[in-house]
Amino acid sequence: MTTPQHQVAFGIDIGGSGIKGAPVDLTTGQFLAERVRIATPQPATPAAVSQTVAQVADAFALDRSVPIGVTFPAVIQHGVALSAANVDPSWIGTNVETVVREATGRPVLAVNDADAAGFAEVEYGAAKGVPGVVLVITLGTGIGSALIVDEVLVPNTELGHLEVDGHDAESRAADSARDREELSWKQWAERLQRYFDVVEKLFSPDLIVVGGGVSKKHEKFLPLLDLRAPIVPAGLLNAAGIVGAASLAAQRR
Ligand code: BGC
What we know:
It is a single chain. By secondary structure, the protein is of the alpha/beta class. It folds into two domains: 5-116 and 239-252, ATPase, nucleotide binding domain (Nucleotidyltransferase, domain 5, 2-Layer Sandwich), CATH 3.30.420; 129-234, ATPase, nucleotide binding domain (Nucleotidyltransferase, domain 5), CATH 3.30.420.40. The chain is 32% helix and 25% strand. The protein contains eight helices and 15 strands. The chain has helices spanning 46-58, 96-104, 113-124, 169-173, 175-180, 185-203, 218-221, 240-251; strands spanning 8-14, 18-25, 30-31, 36-39, 68-72, 76-77, 80-81, 108-112, 133-139, 143-149, 152-154, 163-164, 167-168, 207-211, 231-233. Strands 1, 2, 3, 4, 5 and 8 form a six-stranded mixed β-sheet that branches. The protein has a five-stranded mixed β-sheet with strand order 11-10-9-14-15. α1 (46-58) packs across α2 (96-104) and α3 packs across α8 (240-251). The chain is globular, with a radius of gyration of 17 Å. Residues 73-75, 83, 85-86, 112-114, 138, 140, 142, 144, 158, 160, 170 line the site of beta-D-glucopyranose.
């Protein structure tokens, strides 16, 4: 692990329904104050969302030099959003770092939401010290993925969009599909089983870590899955994205 340049950074999670943030103590990976959540403005354009990110950051009295890591539910390459599966299409081609930096007046790093969670799991959670191939899969509105090889993150894998039985996998196996179709835990677990079978065949992971809001209820569905690799809940549960983004922002040089 590289030593963070800052001991404190903000993590802010930009999601389809809420924008949530907290200052993070990077020596422990814990929130330094209770998380603030503001509903995502609609339409969720870059200008409106970055103003809300500024409101979340300003809710905490921290120096302007404290960096912000923002998670975003899309492919992020060098700060620029290249996809928009569950967000406003006007984000495609937008430099997330530039718009958020201009709105907040702080140094900003942008990262895919699942990659941020994966990074936090390596630094503080269930993937810490695990050699080989680890997949962190987040189950929420979509399915996010982080591929980690010997504790190094390979970004933007987008495994939620694998084609499984002729469908975009997340359209059937995300937590939002469970809600929308009112699936029982058992019915949803059957979809997850199918999804993880395909993922296992392609990547032969040594460990699968499951994150996202529903990871709080892991005992309802993880025991129903039968996989070769061990499958465990995220050590940081749903805080992983915020913590990982903060940590990455602090390490940027
Ligand atoms: C997006 C990913 C994102 C995932 C979880 C998918 O629809 O394509 O970039 O990580 O949802 O939010």
